[in-house]
Amino acid sequence: MSRETILRKIRQVEVKGESFPLPENLPAYPEYPDPVAKFRKEFEALEGIFIEVSSEKEIRSALQQVLKENNAKSISWEKKELLDLTGCSYPPAFQFSSEDFFTCSLHEDGALAKQLTLTNFDRTSEEMGRMEVSVSLARAGIAETGSVVESTGEKGSRVMPILAPVHVVFLPADRLVNSPLDFFTNFIPGAEGSSQIIMSGASRTADIEKTLIVGVHGPKKLYVLFIR
């Protein structure tokens, strides 16, 4: 249907003053007996990498796996709270990321030692473009579609889920829901972050000559660390 046809029909309805009743009942959305298994199936079908963890040691092991698989030497952290989940130690006087900079841990040998070497980098295009692996926290996980939802802030933190070639999302078990309806029913716009990003697997597009390109609008590889 052409654009002109659609606009003509809209104008006809406006002239007639017609109105249509909204549905009173929404269609039933699925509930899964094992939402974790459903999320994993859908997420991996989209070429996401799912790793289940239940301790600080397993989180460190998973992150070391990410470093080695991607030949990376650094990890960029969205929040101090995520770094604390690893159980790693660092200088107590270290100044963590603020509106002016991000925090980065250095791993020259590709290993994740319990004693971390931390540094900060400015929120400039040049500095952020050097990120190898970024880590952030999921607002929610949606089992039906294998998607993760991330809340973004007004400042540079909105780049964490999309700019680095490899992105790791921490997804606590209590943040997994069955369907988009479950998420949006309890979502209050503006209450957390300036916007929400819904990610379903690594970034991919085939808009140009139907040639598949990975990593154009987001990470080339997407990991979920599901925390029991």
What does this structure look like?
This protein is α/β, with parallel strands linked by helices and 228 residues long. Helix content is 24%, strand content 26%. The chain has helices at 3-16, 35-45, 56-69, 80-84, 125-128, 180-185; strands spanning 49-53, 74-77, 101-106, 117-122, 133-137, 140-142, 147-152, 166-172, 176-177, 195-199, 204-205, 213-214, 221-227. The strands form 3 sheets. It has a 7-stranded mixed β-sheet with strand order 1-13-8-5-2-3-4. Strands 9-6-7-10 form a 4-stranded mixed β-sheet. Strands 11-12 form a two-stranded antiparallel ribbon. Strand 6 and strand 7 (147-152) form a beta hairpin. The longest helix has 14 residues, at 3-16. The protein starts with a helix and ends with a strand. The mean pLDDT is 86.
Strand content: 25-35%
Distance between the termini: 49 Å
Count of helices?
Answer: 6
Biggest beta sheet attributes: 7 strands, mixed
**Structural class given helices, strands, pairing?**
alpha/beta
Question: Would you tell me the overall average pLDDT?
Answer: 86
Shape: elongated
Q: Taking Cα atoms only, what radius of gyration do you get, to the nearest Å?
A: 21 Å
SSE order? HHEHEHEEHEEEEEHEEEE
Report low-confidence residues grouped into runs of 5 or more: none
Number-wise, the strands total: 13
The helix content is 10-25%
What spatial order of strands do you see in the largest sheet? Answer: 1-13-8-5-2-3-4
